[in-house]
Amino acid sequence: MTMSELERFASWVEDLIRQRGYDIDSPRGGGKSRLADEAGVHRAAITRLLQGQSMPDLETTRRLAHVLRVPVRDMLIRSGRLSEEDLPLPDLGGGELDTAAPPRRLTLEEAAAGLGVPREQWDMFIRVAGQFLPADADSARGSAGHGSAAAKG
Question: Which pLDDT belongs to residue 109?
């Protein structure tokens, strides 16, 4: 990774941190410490990233993605560690048309995973998002009936 790639990534993360309400500009704002505490990482890792000194390790990247509410996939691609080709999005049936079978709908579990919803919040996501699906979309509510029951309850 070149220095300019690290600097671009650091700038992107810095913008995300500010957008999420962490005060990282004032010396006593406590934003770096609060972010580190919420992510369960060392404050030094946050400081090194923001100063463009080093890339966080994979676990730190995962934890920051969770706290900053961005998919880990986006963090990894933006960091330059992996490309979009390395982390393809699931095929949602928008490719070749097969007139014999209707396109497969995205399940709510797949939507939660694709949107980066934390695993512990999937049930709530499925219940809320399921309310917006048309009545004939029961098959899209979840796999093996799991999401369907959660979406209706």
Answer: 84
d(CA 115, CA 135): 23
- The model carries a pTM of 0.58
Tokens found for residue 20: 């999420």
Average pLDDT taken over every residue of the chain: 80
Question: What sign results for the dihedral spanned by CA atoms 124, 127, 133, 138?
Answer: positive
In Å, what is the CA distance from 145 to each residue of 39, 139, 153? 33, 8, 12
In angstroms, rounded to a whole number, what is the distance separating the alpha carbons of residues 152 and 27? 48
Highest mean pLDDT among 38-42, 81-85, 148-152: 38-42
Long-range contacts of 63-68 (CB under 8 A, 24+ apart): 63/39, 64/13, 64/35, 64/39, 65/116, 66/39, 66/116, 66/118, 67/20, 67/35, 67/38, 67/39, 68/13, 68/16, 68/17, 68/20
Residue 51 has which token pair?
């100063």
